[in-house]
Amino acid sequence: MTPISSNTFIKSLKKIWGLVLVLYSAPLLYGDYSLAKDAELRRHYLGVLGVQEVVEPVIDNEDRPLYEKIFPFFQNDAKRAIEMIKAGVRANSSAVFDYLLGYLQLQEGHADEAIRHFEQAIQKHPRFLRAQRGLSITLMQQQKWTEAIPHLLQVITLGGADGQSYGLLAYARLNEEAYSAALAAYRQARMFEPYDIQYKRGEVQCLLKVGAYAEARQNLEEMLGETPYDASLWMLQCNALLALGQSERALQNLQTLHDMGLATHESLVLLGNLYFNAGRVTIACDRYMEAEKMESFQEYGVIVQGIKMLMRMGEMDLAERLMVSMEQHKSVDQQPQVLTDLKYAKILLAFHRGEEKMSELENFVASNPLHGEAILTLAKKYRTLERNDEARFYLNLAEKLPEVKVEAWMELSRLALAARDNKEALRYLYKAEQSNPSETLRRYIDEVKALGR
Predict the structure, then answer these.
(1) Is 21 a domain residue?
(2) Residue 361's pLDDT is what?
(3) Rounded CA gap, 180 and 203, in Å?
(4) Of 133, 138, 184, 135, which is closest to residue 158 (Cα–Cα)?
(5) 407 within some domain
(6) Could you read off the pLDDT of 372-411 as tens digits, one per residue?
(7) Of 425, 365, 431, which Cα lies nearest the Cα of 393?
(8) Helix crossing, 405-418 with 422-435: angle to 10°?
(9) Is 30 helix (H, G, I), strand (E, B) or coil?
(10) CA distance 418 to 446
(11) pLDDT tens across 263-291, in order?
């Protein structure tokens, strides 16, 4: 599942700032309300301030001259405004000036300074709504999710609840992987802004994380009806469908995305996997090779696994076709592990075609002593050739590697049974059961026990 990109989020913050800063008009925040000459307006200002004084500090008569002096520079000369505020502000000046310094510093790209001034404004006036909002947004812009959350909650508590504040809170919770809390916040954000695509997308991501797959699928169907050309939404819906066990529907959706010309390398790889699981291996290979041609493709490990699966299925020509396709892409050279696995796959292909070259496999294992799959393959080949001492040596190496230890114990048990050492065979089988229990293995153990009676 793809999270909301930080770049998209930060771009949205720049737009949000236009909503955050409502510059203080002189009569509204001056302590002298006589500036509003009209009686009706004066009653209006008094009524507003009767509610807002708690969350908005007032500029008194002592601070008024400085405010009037700097006001013309707010929009066009932030540096000059900063210098004038710093030169003229007093220790007990209104928190408004600390807030304005924070905003202006942020305009100049000085986030740390902005945070410091917002914090000073809040220290002077703890219930300063705009300063709480400014600080929370700046912290979010710096991706300091944990630090931003208490200030976002303060914004909401102080009466600033809106789609923006709940949306930012949801995004912070999502980045903290607190998915239930993020989901609740996204739902609140959507109450204010029901058509915001980012809030819808965030809600869906949270629904997927908390396992509400049916609701996520339903929401995604609605979203795709509105924006059918958004590839990321198709991928999210595919995740929901797969979680609901509807793999055929997921395959159809991804094929539709492909037919619309909107496929990404991620969607093509997933589509290839689904075709593979459905037994349609030729189409799967076609999709893998389409994905390889995309500039951002790096998932060569998936292709190598597909090659191995094709060989196990006896599809040697298709396996070789994928190998040749991989070798044509220079980006493979930047992935040493993939190159190693590809070399091993070539050796396996030779074995499957009857062109056995034990020396190549032995040399490969010697050069890659931690390649568990290759060590296990070499041990099996030795056992097939009845070179049991050599087989046991490599199986003892393989059992020390977590990814193949269970299969190594199973092979060691077979060697022990061939030597009529049932006790030794059971010892390895018990190890395998302890690490990876299954009903099939339990029945096999019972059969081996019966042989010893």
Answers:
(1) yes
(2) 87
(3) 10
(4) 133
(5) no
(6) 989 999 999 899 888 999 999 999 999 999 999 999 999 9
(7) 365
(8) 160
(9) strand
(10) 17
(11) 999 999 999 999 999 999 999 999 999 99
Specify the amino acid at residue 19.
Answer: L
Token pair of 77 as six digits: 């000369």
* Rounded Cα gap, residues 134 and 141, in angstroms: 11
- CATH classification at residue 12: 1.25.40.10
Within 10 angstroms of residue 272's Cβ, the number of other Cβ atoms is: 25
Quick: pLDDT tens for 83-122: 888 888 887 888 888 898 898 888 888 999 999 999 999 9
What confidence tier does 452 reach under pLDDT thresholds 50, 70, 90? low
- The residues with which 59 forms a beta bridge, in sequence order, are 30
Q: Does the global pTM surpass 0.85?
A: no
183 in helix, strand or coil? helix
Q: Is 300 left (phi over 0), alpha (psi -120 to 50) or beta?
A: alpha
Cα separations in angstroms, 160 against 116, 185, 260, 416: 22, 14, 43, 74
Sign of CA dihedral 271, 276, 282, 288: positive
* Tens digits of residue pLDDT in 170-198: 999 999 999 999 999 999 999 999 999 99
- On whether the CB atoms of residues 394 and 379 are closer than 8 A, the answer is yes
| Amino acid identity, position 127 | R
Cβ atoms of 244 and 213 closer than 8 Å: yes
* Domain-embedded: residue 343: no
Q: Which two tokens stand for residue 372?
A: 């568990």
Range of the domain at 101: 1-158
State the Cα angle at 231 between 227 and 235, rounded to 5°. 115
- Judge contact between 179 and 209, C-beta under 8 A: yes
> Which 3 state secondary structure label does DSSP give 59?
strand
In a domain, 428, yes or no: no
CA dist 273 and 267 (Å) reads 10
> Which ranges of 108-178 would DSSP assign to H, the alpha helix?
111-124, 129-141, 145-155, 163-175
Q: Which residues contact 222 (CB under 8 A, 6 or more apart)?
A: none
Total domains in the fold of the chain: 1
CA–CA distance, 12 with 4 (Å, rounded to integer) = 12
For the beta carbon of residue 407, count every other beta carbon within 10 angstroms: 19
Tokens of 151: 């200030």
User: Which CA distances in Å does 221 have to 48, 186, 210?
Assistant: 44, 18, 19
Chain Cα centroid distance, residue 72: 44
> Does the pLDDT value for residue 334 go beyond 50?
yes
Q: What pLDDT score was predicted for residue 118?
A: 94
DSSP H/E element including 58 = none
Helix 95-107, helix 129-141: angle, nearest 10: 30
- Main-chain dihedrals φ then ψ at residue 67, nearest 5 degrees: -65, -45
3-state secondary structure of 109: coil
